[in-house]
Amino acid sequence: MMPSLPYLLGRKPLPDGAALPVLPTETIADDVLWSCTTCRACEQACPLFIEFIDRIVGMRRKLVLEDSAFPSELTAAFRNLEKAGNPWGQPAAARAAWAEGLDVPVLSESAGDVEYLLWVGCAGAYDDRGKKVARATATILREAGVSFAILGPEETCTGDPARRTGNEYLYQMLAQQNVETLNGHGVKKIVTQCPHCFNTLLNEYPQLGGRYEVVHHSALIARLIAEGRIALGAGAASDVTFHDSCYLGRHNGVYDAPREILSSAGLRILEMPRNRENGFCCGAGGGRMWMEEHLGTKVNKSRVDEAAAAGAPLVASACPFCATMLSDGINETGRADSMKVEDVAQIVASRLIPRARG
């Protein structure tokens, strides 16, 4: 095979009858493209400010949409997203089941305006761990007197898993449906507990006409605490280490709010060596949540080793994917008796001091 770079850069004319090499598969191995978690660490470290993620996702798009060549595990995820609007394939009618007993209003049935739409996300609606976070978030908002509602069955996946894995057509189908729904209800403000939903709604939906004020639940909760709208009891004294989600941290620069929450809850934060801008991925980003890991050491196990070395029995998270990956890593490394994972909203909800009500 002839050296590719001079021809790809246009520095040499192609010989007669020759064709430029195809980057995905022929030049860049599939394992390289599909192993990327889109964590953005490479972009942050690159002295030339090269944007790798867009190029990798672009090559994934070629493989998926032109060649129908992608990891077999994604087949079910794509099918479930297309048919049911969530990667688990659960029915839309069950979207609000997590809120049973909480009297959470549904936007289509709400009388009058609400301040925030609580974007529950697929994990919050269907994953058992995510449901607990959704309930904790709703409890906090209610306690603080925040007016909010949910979409319930009208909500569907933001399309983030589809876009990161190269299925741009499916992403746009899901995103356009959501934009029509949100704009139809006149939504202005959104709070979400998932950094992937947060990033997509904030940074990518404007491309399709969806412009909203989007806040991650950690930032809103931190503000509610600072304003005195919720009060926290000290709870049991404990140490905690916080895992920075890539899509909350490096992609969107939210580092302080989760730590402010933990400090307000009376916890002492023991940082892992790789934290904040230098945080280490859990392994679920870039659609890896729906793929098996076959090469090298599992990312989530490496991260759990770092958390254990920090010396805290509690690992705090602000992302449903991170919580799942860290919990799996704790179980797989035999640390289930000495470590646990909780979302920052769960920690706050467990320490809430109810307001006096007249």
Tell me what the structure shows.
By secondary structure, this protein is an alpha/beta fold. The chain is 41% helix and 9% strand. It has helices at residues 5-8, 30-35, 41-45, 52-66, 73-84, 121-126, 128-144, 160-164, 168-184, 195-204, 217-226, 256-264, 299-310, 320-332, 344-350, and strands at 116-119, 148-149, 189-192, 213-216, 231-232, 239-242, 268-269, 314-317, 340-343, 352-353. A 4-stranded parallel sheet has the order 2-1-3-4, with helices on both faces. A 4-stranded parallel sheet has the order 7-6-8-9, sandwiched between helices. Strand 3, helix 10 and strand 4 form a beta-alpha-beta unit.
Defining traits:
single chain, 358 residues, alpha/beta, Rossmann fold, 4-stranded parallel sheet, 41% helix
